[in-house]
Amino acid sequence: MALEVTDKNFEEVVINSDKPVIVDFWAAWCGPCRMVGPIIDEIGEEFKDKAIVTKLDVDNNPGTTMRFGIRNIPTVLFFKNGKIADKQIGAVPKSNFVSKLEALL
Prior knowledge:
Layout (H helix, E strand, L loop, with lengths): L2 E2 L5 H6 L5 E6 L4 H16 L5 E6 L4 H6 L7 E6 L2 E7 L4 H9 L3
Parallel strand pairs: 1-3, 2-3
Antiparallel strand pairs: 2-4, 4-5
């Protein structure tokens, strides 16, 4: 299961993490986001000891959404050492997310 991050805890959970972090920027009204959501949850379970997998609701967290220039959702950002290391926009197969994450481990 993915961890819910917000404008308030983003710095602590994502930027200050010593593990790679996935952040899924999504919204409840977004159809493709509903397709990606379960995949992100699965990856969260499979990599729970190696990475932190999170979701951020763009409607409730405009500060972080604007900070990273998120214009299309779903957008999944991959962080390593507090910096964006990779990005995936749109609904894609699970293997795309896994290969990007594995490259950061």
